[in-house]
Description:
- By secondary structure, the protein is α/β, with parallel strands linked by helices.
- 30% of the residues lie in helices and 23% in strands.
- The longest helix is centred in the middle third of the chain and has 17 residues, at 193-209.
- It starts with 40 loop residues before the first strand and ends with a helix.
Amino acid sequence: MDAPLDALADDGPAGPRAAAGAGAARSPARWPGLDGVDERRFSLFVVGDVRIEVRASLPGTRFTELTADRLAYAPARAMVAGTAVNLARCATGYFRRVSVLAKIGDDDFTPVIRRELRRIGVRDRLRVEPGAANGVTIMLRDRGRGDAPGTRLLVAEEDAPGRRLTESEVRAAGAGIRRADVLFLDGYALLSPVSRAAVHAAARIARDAGTLVAFDLVPHDIDERLAAVDVLPLLSVADVVFSEAPTLARVLGLPPPVGGREVRGLLPALDRAVPGRPLWLLRFGATSLELVLAHQRERLLMEYPTGYGPGVERAGFGDRLASGELYWWLSAR
């Protein structure tokens, strides 16, 4: 990222002034906000996962109470989801052009997936694996304590086509990556050696073309699934990184921070471990979603509340926030 942090502190419609600790009035959660913009700008190219997902909430049940088989009638729905679609669906409220590259299966869900991308206004760069079934995910959330959200259980099919996105398929989409203002990647692709090589290839194409690279450090337990040596190289080539602060701390082999002071204490170790000058957007708080610390090497830009709290729908909130933050960041440049 070659723009100085001071550029992110400009008042006006192209980017809010926000010195360290300036507060919510000048944060990306307030401008451009979480509900899209009137003037869509920039182009975004997303590489990630596309699946069919079944979501259900169990408002009358806690997982810890289940000691036998249970039939529960509760709100449930099936939808096209996955990291790429979830982000793209929100990003269309900000970006003039959004493209999605993902590897999907070849079954009855395939036309459903393509129709959904057309419906939300996203350019389809999908690669179909002949004869393969589309990946399926089941997301269940139980009853929370008081105003707190319930526990989420996410069951994802392990052998989904997205794990087999190849370098050659990424290179075939290289023109779209080179034309984009920003390439968005996420850590789920790192879990498979094949797709890990593919997202590294996408990042190289973007860097060579001057396309900015954004990276979302998920899943939140990635430290239990991969060694740091498999994660840090992609962080080192990113221009902006989204991460829950506890996740990043564990990747670095450090105790997860609890409050803002401990998150700030993480920053020197972060600067030592990751070369370059990425803009870090570190989420923290009671559920690691309430606050963000924005940091670039040796400098604290700002800390701001996201607007998440009791009564706010958690599903999709992180993607809404990231979309607004990307637009804010690009506008400031």
